[in-house]
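Q: I'm writing up a methods section and want to include an example of the input and output format. Could you take the sequence below and give the corresponding predicted structure tokens, formatted cleanly so I can copy it straight into the document?
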Amino acid sequence: MPPLDIKKESIKPKFQTIEMKDAKDTEAIRFKDGITVDKVRSSNELKKEIVQKATQ
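A: Here is the clean output for your methods example:
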């Protein structure tokens, strides 16, 4: 099952731990004040928004 299932409106969490020596070419992104999500939307809301933007 893929991590995102739009029909069931579910997300399967997938985590992986790595040793720092394996991430030597990876750049870490740090958010000084964190991240804020303005609005949590269902997949149906997102679909409607995508369709509306596509038809404009």
